[in-house]
UniProtKB/TrEMBL annotation:
This is DGCR6 protein. The lineage of its organism: Eukaryota, Metazoa, Chordata, Craniata, Vertebrata. It comes from the Eukaryota. InterPro entries: Gonadal. Belongs to the gonadal family.
Amino acid sequence: MERLCGAGGCEAAEQQLSRQQERHYRLLSELQALVKALPSPCQQRLSYTTLSDLALALLDGTVFDIVQGLLDIQHLTEKNLYSQRLQLHSEHRDPAEDLRDEKKVERRADIPPFFFLLTVFQAVEQRIRDEQRMMDERIVLELDQKVIDQQSTLEKAGVSGFYITTNPQELTLQMNLLELIRKLQQREAEAEKAFS
């Protein structure tokens, strides 16, 4: 009985499906091998189904590109935030300058000069600590938002194990999944180099 496919179309589709299945099994096998290096509690949470779903999501390489893009954005954000923190720190590097600015405050006659300077110095120190604390809090919030953005992006891309959460155990699992994806991506890149 002749197939209803024209001019080798079925054979090409079957070959494509066969290549995808082979790639899926290879990715799954590599994931299973990589999982063995993870801590035992994490290994236990990564079922065969989760790894199989992850391998399926990685088939066409899109997830590798998404993860690389997210990492690039994260590195740029971290570099920018670090720069901002260094800038704030350098602005406060010379407390004597801050002290001179604060000394413009009118000194009360009933306070001895030493106590006045001590009070001004303490005020400067407190202002510096407050500004650094506020900067650090802003940095933490911005990094937390980046994590949420990454989780959302990977969830929308259909990557198994990713969803928005702040649960530390789930975050650890997601970080391990990202590490697995990165290692597979590196292996893929090395394999491409070997064949070119």
